[in-house]
Amino acid sequence: MLPDGKVLAVGGNHNSLDAPTIVALSSAEIYDPATGTWTPAGRSLNAARSTQTATLLPSGQVLVADGFYVNSGIQLSSAELYDSAAGPITLVHPKTLPGGAFQFAFTGAPNGTNTLLATADPASQSSNWTELGVVPEFAPGLFLFSDRQATNHPQRFYRIRSP
């Protein structure tokens, strides 16, 4: 379990009914018990592993160690770190453009995918927020968004969803 209450699932094996071989996996996924959904963890393991250990470290990183690479019968003696801590998102340069559009930039993890949500009531449930779309990366780690519909809403709150 990660510090945010989500669960990291890494590696394992796939037993196929169609073939007698067992295949080790390098996939990594996050399970969110609040929504009951699975999403890709952002990157796979460097080595496919089965029967490995995964330990949450005080830093929020997960140490994935050892395991067995069943495809060639090799016992692994290596380790990998998964960093569960999302980088901070920082708002920069908010301004109202001519015509009333609201524009702002924010910093985040380079090459990240960020989806912008909006609402008039910040206390409303996440499922009631309106998805405005994926925010394009203007420069490495700098994302720029313009809300042309801001003039239609006297007060609007924004949330950035980053996987």
Structure description:
By secondary structure, the protein is an all-beta fold. The chain has 2 domains: 7-83, no CATH class; 90-161. It has strands spanning 7-10, 13-15, 22-24, 28-32, 37-40, 53-56, 61-65, 68-69, 74-75, 79-83, 90-96, 102-107, 115-119, 130-134, 137-139, 142-147, 157-161. It has a 4-stranded antiparallel sheet, with no helix packed on it. The chain has a 3-stranded antiparallel sheet with strand order 1-4-5, with no helix packed on it. The protein has a 3-stranded antiparallel sheet with strand order 6-7-10, with no helix packed on it. The chain is elongated and about 65 Å long. The two termini are 16 Å apart. The model has no long low-confidence stretch (mean pLDDT 82).
Residues in β-strands, percent: over 45%
Helix content: under 10%
> How many helices?
0
Structural class, by secondary structure, is mainly beta
| Unreliable segments of 5+ consecutive residues | none
Number of strands: 17
Rounded to the nearest angstrom, the distance between the terminal CA atoms is 16 Å
Largest sheet entry:
4 strands, antiparallel
Strand order of the largest sheet: 11-12-16-15
**SSE pattern:** EEEEEEEEEEEEEEEEE
Number of domains: 2
Radius of gyration: 21 Å
Judging from the principal axes of the Cα atoms, what is the shape? elongated
Give the integer mean of the pLDDT values: 82
